[in-house]
């Protein structure tokens, strides 16, 4: 009832390598008392390259919350329109074919939302429904697919456009010098992604067909992943306790997959996991007894782009399309994790009509 | 398939009358060159009283975006839990009966969202789904009911909790001295509202049963209602052009109601309109040829509480419950307007089981 078609991922043209970023931070904080620890931890992130909305020297200089949020709007809209057009073209569809636009993001705040700007900027119908969400962080990509599944269960002849807009570089805070902040500065990457989710697969369609969904909130863990909202904008704050959340969510994934397919997670044909970071992926491998190859595309996404937040699951899904290893009927799981602590999980079938 | 049950509205204990507010602003801006115009326009808002999160002397003194946003979180959560418990009690339900929590708001930004804080603070199930939206302004109340309708169309045996958290007083900007800003300072009020939306009405239930929904975006009117996001927080900006939007949305309402009931809007038994302000209501009366009595509850809400943003439609709906004038089978419309320019509209039947 919900076919997630091939995503389009658009990266801004500026890049920064791990080596360059180490140099930039060392120059910014030449007297940091924990520098050796920080450098070792950055080297251990396995993030080798990231794309940035602006050149790195601009990223690390705070031009004010207002300037950054205006940049978010201008570039976010431009790249959203570009990604949307490409995603529509892949399906031979036009904006007129879309009934609901979901925009997920956690790196800027606009009112009106990007949903209405996108509707105005392209040939969408005035009655197109809007679902703009900016408070679910890295869980928001899988979350949006789960909400699209529910929507298309009610309206199986309709179609949903999903857009993810993530410019984490706009959250670089030069005065946040905690170890965890400096590691985060080297973890997240910028990208805008789009995918069409169709209510009814047609002949010739290929994609990830959602068969079931579930959500999970680990209570009283709001401090695991959070923003402090200040005059300087959003300050990302990560508690290393978040690593322990995977051991709680793993049995929930197992129970959910068992209920849908009588299989174990590691018996599925493909796995689309959010790449919170190296440690999160190690925890997934360990707690779900996964073959390392299973999460190869997630590792690759992290290595080449950093954590692109809500866009990660779309980037990993795109790799599944590009791999040409999928066959009709393959079974898979998607799971993403974010603030709350929230996990959004779905199960489905690869379709090649 | 979606029964909106009696809302609970909670107002903070501080209040400010129109007379007091005129005095406060005159003291703040004793040399304002347009003061006479401003005072006349404030007197014309027909807002006589408003509830405020803090005493008025605190409201008009900007303590910083961070302080305000923390207040938003602490008081927003406390009042959300209170309103939720009361709304559940009215239906003899517990948090365990809720499958989806929608929190709409446009006066603060939290990550994690209030949805996860509410789940942690009460006896909700960990698999409760979250839908937090903060970018749809005054349209968000009717928007949320429309999304709940779609959700319950897919899951008719489930229930949705809707919470609206609006503290517009946290957006008072002492440096915004445009006429439109000073009028807005006297227009909006604070409130937290909650309502349970049931997928399947049961014996003894009363409420507004949604039979149909529609959405509308007037393209290229993002400047009608918008926030400028700055280091000082959200700056509300209203273009008086927004008044002309009602003449565009009126025929859309007529067509929608005709398609659902073969009636005109003014032939319906009840009307739940967002109270954007006096002029918006005058435009509704004029463009829909309404009897003035039709919008009595909307006028009353504006007069006694100011525009409580996404909560208005819930407050007006509550008046419909309290009025004891509704009878089983009555037909009605709900419509709210917000940034985009966006209108969210639904049609339904009063049910007394």
List keywords for this structure.
36% helix; Peroxisomal Thiolase, Chain A, domain 1; ten-stranded mixed sheet; 14 strands; 353 residues; alpha+beta
Description:
- Two copies of one chain form a homodimer.
- The first copy, chain A, has about 350 residues and is α+β, with helices and mostly antiparallel strands.
- The first copy, chain A, has two domains: about 5-200, Thiolase/Chalcone synthase (Peroxisomal Thiolase, Chain A, domain 1), CATH 3.40.47.10; about 205-350, Thiolase/Chalcone synthase (Peroxisomal Thiolase, Chain A, domain 1, 3-Layer(aba) Sandwich), CATH 3.40.47.10.
- Chain A has eleven helices and 14 strands.
- In chain A, the strands form three sheets. In chain A, strands 1, 2, 5, 6, 7, 8, 9, 12, 13 and 14 form a ten-stranded mixed β-sheet that branches. Chain A has a two-stranded antiparallel sheet with strand order 3-4.
- In chain A, helix 4 (about 65-90) crosses helix 5 and helix 10 crosses helix 11.
- Chain A is globular, with a radius of gyration of 19 Å.
- The mean pLDDT of chain A is about 95.
Task: Write the topology of this structure.
The structure is a homodimer of 353-residue chains.
Chain A: E1 3-4, E2 8-10, E3 14-17, H1 18-28, H2 35-43, E4 49-52, H3 56-59, H4 65-90, E5 100-105, H5 114-121, E6 129-133, H6 140-154, E7 159-166, H7 179-184, E8 191-198, E9 206-217, E10 225-230, E11 233-238, H8 245-261, E12 270-273, H9 278-287, H10 296-305, H11 312-323, E13 331-338, E14 342-352
Parallel strand pairs in A: 5-6, 5-7, 12-13
Antiparallel strand pairs in A: 1-8, 1-9, 2-8, 3-4, 7-8, 9-14, 10-11, 13-14
Helix pairs in contact in A: 4-5, 8-9, 10-11
